[in-house]
Amino acid sequence: MKLLRTLKRVAAAGAVILAAVSLQPTTAFAAAPPVVGGTRAAQGEFPFMVRLSMGCGGSLLTQQIVLTAAHCVSGSGNNTSITATAGVVDLQSASAIRVRSTKVLQAPGYNGTGKDWALIKLAQPINLPTLKIAEDASYDNGDFQIAGWGAAREGGAQQRYLLKATVPFVSDADCQRAYPELVGEEEICAGLPRGGVDTCQGDSGGPMFRRDNAGQWIQVGIVSWGYGCARPNYPGVYAEVSHFAAEIKASAATL
User: Of 22, 76, 101, 116, which one is the catalytic site residue?
Assistant: First the structure.
């Protein structure tokens, strides 16, 4: 999926292998990429993770607002047909919490390049821990955690169980060797030079996160796009949350 500039969202391929390979869906309901090279997450390990019915991931910004990727909701408008599933690792679990959307806010000015964030308001709060967002670039480095229900290999199927993996930061300079079109100030890259670990189809919109200085999870990226999944020298590309933090918080307040 890295032969094309693909958004890591709804392509029917790929299992949960956190790899930097995604396909750019043609509609808000395309299939997203999964985590490649990952392992199964434990129940309750990442309680802020959300699965969206169009085939994307997301995180609980608040108990009633999901942060996801703009490309996941393109064309949806104030869509009330999106279902958010939370509270489980197994999407088929009887204890899954499922809540419908009431409003969608896509990043103002989003045109398919950069600005890949969006907010979905839910019909009612989900009583689970939320994931705070990085408000400056101080955490935009080191090793990051990725997780999702996307494909575990390029072209693979979406996953029933949440997968997780760890990927290292890749500088803008190194990332632009793979992706000359990278929007450096709005996007952040992560992945292993040898490949093998990445987000994939079905992982789009999910969070890339790490520990802050207090040991708490903090979101630094949103799964966005890449060429294929987990290919050598093609890291994953993520929306850089710290760049949009103020706008995200202000937009959430309007919902």
Answer: 116
